[in-house]
Recover the amino acids of this structure.
């Protein structure tokens, strides 16, 4: 007889409690419209692995214990000399959880790991504007799967919860009904004001760039006009000089002709005498 699969507690809670509550709260016409958890991505930085490959193995083992899944190694896409980083070096580890594994991890995160954070006073409701939520964990030892005595060093985690919610308010309601310990609720007016502020800043930046471009084009046009004026003045000056030279040459020729005529007249007068 095949073993029966144990139902995931948080997934069962979503179907029986959370989804109906979301439908009632937001007035969805279908259960399929209710937001749900699509995936959870867990990232761990391992920049020190470029100096010691054993650190990469240790970090990968710890992340596998935390998530129950073998992590993927993220490699550097380009070289950065200041950080002594070359393209292709390992810089991080990542695990993407979906389906039952995502619900199991979220359950352990909320019910076991987060309460073990020192001086914990709640999580800020900082969503990304599209109903997704990211948690930064400073110490991997808050997860009970990690043996504190066997840890080589403290490492942080980034946990990104991707939902199908269309707004932050819906995403907040989904996670809050699951039991996520938020300390505040996102205010739609504040979110709208923040978005308007970002849009205004972007518009101002665009206007400044356009103004700078226009000023640059104006300066280039002015420089070209000055050059054309200088060329015209130079041409006029050359024409004036040529005209003056022609006048002087003409005057000299006339003077020479007069002198020649006078010289021719003097012998004739002497002969008459």
């Amino acid at each position: 007889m095949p073993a029966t699969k144990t139902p995931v507690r948080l997934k069962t809670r979503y179907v029986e409690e959370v989804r109906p509550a979301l439908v009632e709260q937001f007035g969805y016409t279908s259960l399929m419209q209710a937001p749900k958890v699509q995936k959870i991505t867990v990232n761990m930085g391992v920049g020190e692995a470029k100096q010691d490959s054993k650190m990469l193995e240790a970090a990968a083992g710890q992340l596998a214990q935390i998530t129950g899944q073998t992590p993927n190694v993220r490699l550097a896409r380009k070289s950065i000399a200041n950080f002594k980083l070359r393209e292709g070096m390992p810089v991080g580890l990542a695990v993407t959880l979906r389906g039952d594994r995502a619900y199991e991890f979220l359950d352990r995160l909320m019910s076991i790991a987060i309460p073990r954070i020192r001086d914990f006073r709640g999580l800020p409701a900082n969503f990304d504007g599209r109903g997704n939520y990211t948690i930064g964990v400073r110490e991997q030892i808050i997860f009970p799967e990690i043996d504190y005595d066997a840890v080589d060093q403290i490492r942080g985690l980034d946990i990104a919860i991707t939902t199908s919610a269309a707004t932050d308010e819906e995403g907040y309601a989904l996670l809050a009904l699951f039991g996520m310990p938020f300390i505040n609720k996102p205010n739609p007016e504040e979110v709208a004001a923040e978005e308007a502020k970002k849009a205004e800043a972007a518009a101002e930046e665009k206007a400044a760039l356009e103004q700078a471009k226009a000023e640059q084009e104006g300066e280039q046009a002015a420089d070209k006009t000055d050059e054309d004026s200088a060329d015209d003045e130079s041409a006029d000056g050359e024409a004036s000089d040529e005209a003056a030279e022609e006048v002087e040459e003409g005057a000299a020729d006339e003077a020479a002709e007069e002198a020649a005529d006078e010289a021719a007249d003097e012998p004739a007068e002497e002969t008459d005498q």
